[in-house]
Amino acid sequence: MKDTYISEAVKYIGADDTTLDLFEGQYKIPNGGSYNSYVILDEKVAVMDTIDERKTDEWFANLENVLNGRTVDYLVISHLEPDHAANIKCAADKFPQAQLVLSAKAKAMLPQFLHFVMAPMVHWPEVMVEYEETEKILFSADGFGKFGALSAEEEWTDEARRYFINIVGKYGVQVQTLLKKAAALDIQTICPLHGPILKDNLGFYIGKYLTWSSYEPEEDGVLVACASIHGNTKAAAEKMVEVLRANGASKVVFMDLTRDDMAEAVADAFRYGKIILAAASYDAGVFPRERFMGTLRSKRHEGYSRGYERGKRM
Fold first, then answer.
1. Which of 18, 86, 234, 241 sits 20 to 30 Å CA-CA off 39?
2. Model pTM?
């Protein structure tokens, strides 16, 4: 388990889920995922989001342990997806005196220690993030999250990039707006709803989000992606990889869109500065899955090769 200590007044009460194989029913997560939740122990007690019903018992046990006999005064709801909101009713039933804090009501209800920032479409319309002024903590909802359980020993960037581009990446303008608001805050710790708590070198993580949300390439490289029906388009794409490398291309990555993880291919499409897509003609259209084609929104140099695998073959 990665370090979940935040401070004496702010505690982690989330849970890992290493049995979940798909995030949101579509993104492969071989290392599982984490459902993050936090408690602020001040004159009043605030619980920052609940977690998925798959881990209800563990969450309540963690909460009771941290409360140590105290009760909950506020339940702050950042985001209404079920993996964060599934236990709102259970928590409200258990702590009937607790006030629910969400969206428009937020700032007026907790002015003493929390500052609320609306973050619509990052990545749901009701999302807000919270800033704890005393300890300078940003509770960032799905922002700055990543795939993988906290127990997974892995570098942050790859799974955070795959998470961002596929889940939040459509909303680059909204993320940029949120980052501008966050720039006015003195942030010492970032507590997301998925993935590790970020404490050190925050400029690195914020810099990645600035790059990803602006659709600027991270690296000088070429993604060669192909979708082949009978194997001939794939052979042509592999030949292109050889030609690029022989001509000094600094980094060339090959992805087979019919077999490789589509979420990883989508992330790489934004990671590298150039894309070459080799596609077979199929059913009066183009063979690559629409999800990949629909993500190529950035203004980049793109090479496109369309092969005919029926009739005269490549």
1. 18
2. 0.79
Work out the number of other CB atoms within 10 angstroms of the CB of residue 21. Answer: 11
**What is the per-residue pLDDT across 107-156, written as a single tens digit (0 to 9) for each?**
455 444 578 888 988 988 888 999 998 899 999 999 999 999 999 999 99
Q: For residue 132, list its beta bridge partners.
A: 114, 137
